[in-house]
Specification:
Layout (H helix, E strand, L loop, with lengths): L5 E3 L4 E4 L8 H13 L2 H7 L4 H14 L6 H13 L5 H17 L8 H12 L4 E4 L4 H9 L12 E3 L10 H11 L6 E5 L2 H9 L3 E5 L15 E2 L5 E3 L1
Length: 238
């Protein structure tokens, strides 16, 4: 049930999701994903000698279960995974590299709900450590915060976690790994996400959780027993 305010005492660290929580998933699916997909072909060709690209191609081949797939087959597989919204690590790595160029050139600017910016600023000003956990790569997350509509917000973020350094977002073990990396008791960690399965997994790992349920976001119809808010400024800590 959505409440006007959700209050949590003795929180040592807040961890926030990106897509659907701080930021519009429509922006990610309609702007960011197509930006990378349109560049898979040319970008892989232009960076063919880069060791990071060779590693991505090896991982893509393993995921495809293909020996020496052709350039066109790789591009097709990557494009299909985007269409299927598969959270495949080499795809996430490649997208992060392509977006980096877009952010650096100023062609891309990230997206935040205004209440998310207000909440993050208030927590930061109050000295509350904030980390990010998203299926987008750490590189993509850092760029997301470095190129926001109101400027560079990376000073607000103390840690970045993704499927490579923490694990899948619906596995409790990922939240145990993040708690260990942060160095805090799980019960002092608060996770904010729009996806109930992720909140369930964090809860299993001993975290406290709050659901951000925004009308119009893709997971808004799912029901949960967790405290829910419609805007992040309604989350009160300590
Ligand atoms: Mg989300």
């Amino acid at each position: 049930m959505t409440v006007a305010e959700a209050s949590f005492a003795d929180v040592a660290h807040i961890v926030v999701d990106i897509e659907g929580t701080t930021s519009r998933s429509t922006y990610i699916y309609e702007v960011l994903f197509p930006y990378a997909t349109q560049r898979f072909d040319s970008w892989l060709t232009a960076h063919a000698d880069d060791p990071a690209v060779r590693e991505i191609l090896t991982q893509v081949g393993q995921e495809m279960a293909a020996v020496d797939p052709t350039h066109d087959q790789v591009v097709q597989a990557l494009t299909d995974w985007v269409a299927e919204d598969r959270k495949v690590t080499p795809l996430k790595t490649l997208q992060g590299l392509i977006w980096q160029e877009g952010f650096d050139s100023g062609e891309l600017v990230s997206d935040f709900y205004s209440d998310a910016l207000d909440a993050l600023r208030a927590w930061h000003d109050a000295g509350m450590p904030i980390s990010v956990y998203s299926s987008g790569s750490v590189l993509a997350q850092r760029n997301w915060y470095a190129h926001s509509p109101i400027g560079d917000l990376t000073s607000w973020v103390s840690g970045y976690y993704d499927t490579a350094n923490a694990g899948p977002k619906r596995d409790a073990s990922s939240y145990r790994a993040i708690a260990e990396a942060i160095g805090a008791e799980p019960a002092t960690l608060l996770f904010c996400s729009d996806v109930v399965d992720e909140l369930d997994a964090a809860h299993v790992a001993g975290w406290r959780v709050v659901r951000v349920r925004r009308p119009g976001e893709s997971h808004a119809a799912d029901n949960s027993g967790w405290p829910e808010v419609a805007e992040m400024t309604a989350i009160r800590v300590n």
